Amino acid sequence: MSETTVPAAKTASATSVSPGAVVAGAATARGRRARIALRGLQVLLALFYAVASALPKLIAHSSAVEPFEEMGWGSTGMYAIGVLELAGAIGLLVPVLQSVAAIGLGAMMVGAFVVQMTVFDGQHAVTPLVLIVPLALIAWARRSHNAELPRLLRSVRREG
Length: 160
Fold this sequence. Notes:
Helices cover about 80% and strands about 0% of the residues. It has helices at about 10-15, 20-60, 60-70, 75-95, 100-120, 125-140, 150-160.
């Protein structure tokens, strides 16, 4: 064993810290890394939804216009979906909204999957399915913020 790696039991006895504190410290560090990774995933998904998905719809790029015309939704449907995706992207970055935003975007991905299967013969149906997985993880991991949202809405309603 090198000088830099010391078993937790030796470290705990040498510094008069209980072994339980060493385990708790390790759990805290692991939890911190998990929170950072989850936040990074949220930022990555927010960037994807804002830039790669909503932006082409909101600027009426031909890559977005053609599928919506083919579905019969036209520009109104395209702009509506673009606004919802942008709102979801922003919501993923706002602590009190992140779980609700992930649920909303996940519901949109279920709809996107159905549309891909029925209108476009499953051409890109795997994409929404892949995106549902991290959205479900975010919705579950950030669910504690859901209790804050009704309180916030009540306080805003009282002030207004």
